[in-house]
Prior knowledge:
By secondary structure, this protein is mainly beta. 3% of the residues lie in helices and 31% in strands. It has helices at 148-152, 352-357; strands at residues 13-15, 32-38, 58-60, 69-74, 87-93, 105-109, 113-115, 128-134, 160-162, 168-176, 191-196, 205-206, 212-215, 220-222, 229-230, 238-244, 251-252, 264-266, 272-280, 293-299, 311-314, 318-320, 328-329, 332-338, 363-365, 371-378. Strands 11, 13, 16, 17 and 19 form a five-stranded mixed β-sheet that branches. The longest helix is centred in the last third of the chain and has 6 residues, at 352-357. The N and C termini lie far apart (156 Å). The mean pLDDT is 89.
Amino acid sequence: MPVDTKNYFPQANVPLIEEGKMAHRDENESAIVFIGWTSQKEDHIFKREEKAPTTIHTLTLQDKDATIYAAWGYDSNRDGIADVLETYSLAYDLNQGKGKRPESLTGLKKGAAIQLASESLLTRNEDEVFVGWSETQEKNAIEADATKSQLDLIKKPGSAWVVGPDDQILYAVWAKDHNHNGIADYMEKRFTLFYEGNAQNEGTVTSLPTSSKNHILNDRVTLVAKSPEHSDVNGVPVKFIGWSQQKIDHIFEREDPMPSTIQMITFESQDIHVYALWGYDRDGNDKADLLKDYTLSYDLNGKEGTVPSPQTVKAGSKIILEHPQGLKKGDAIFAGWSTEKIDLIVNVDPDIEILKTIVTNDEYMMPSNDVIVYALWAEDLDHNGIPDYAEKAVHISYHSNTGDE
Length: 405
């Protein structure tokens, strides 16, 4: 230890001796080195993770002798500097991101507060945004339903960070941004999709999908395809038709118009409720009668040729009837389709009941049963390609010319 034999007067400001042979024996094979002088006696050897003692370099004397005390610290790497006095570095890792990586910092003292980099132009995947830094690497982007433990690891860009007793790498943290609005999903207002059973006639609904949570603005969600189940009503099975955002208090029959159903919803400013729609299954084939498919078939009615393919649709659907070209039956021409089989060749003055069976519009509304339409054959005596009955006709009237009229 240094020895100072000089005489000093009170109020003298004396520089302390900080060079020389100031040594401490090793302890448990760990080197111990001089930290500096303290005005208070420290009765332990400082470790890396501890706060360094307050040391003094000069001493202002009073009117009596003064004693100062050596402070000692471990030197695990034997570089001559106490671990507690060493400085540290901070480096940034973009965690598979792209952009300008912040500059590394060196010479940082333990316990010092520094401001973290606040880079704003970092990118990674299309549906992800940069949200901060973490001392542990999180390779996957944080989802909308982030846990508290995940969020606690995030250090916000530009926030204060206290240097610890080690060199540190901070990793970029990425979060999902499904709606591409530049805001992490977990930071946005959350919405819930509720599936409502909409039981009818005091029945019960089971196997209802569970609510879907943590959706955000503009989220598009495909509704659960699995069908819920409804109890029978008055002994008649009731089957699922689909989902609707409108609550409809009705069990649909076969002949009812088909209600609008949805397979996907988009969140806007609030939670969404979708309601199950129900239909009777009177023929017991495990499907709502309203959803059954019906077939429209074509019959050339005695003419050979290529028959249009059958069309299978649901009741209420519109079908565009096909009109094959070049069909003839002797001198008769194809005049269209009829819902009844008309064997005769329709002449210029057909029975009114025959005309009622003719499908006069190319667009046919499918009823709740299978349908066969039959080719209708008609005379075309003037060979202009138009059935005679469809042309404007003129008539001859006979006048008696007796003067009585």
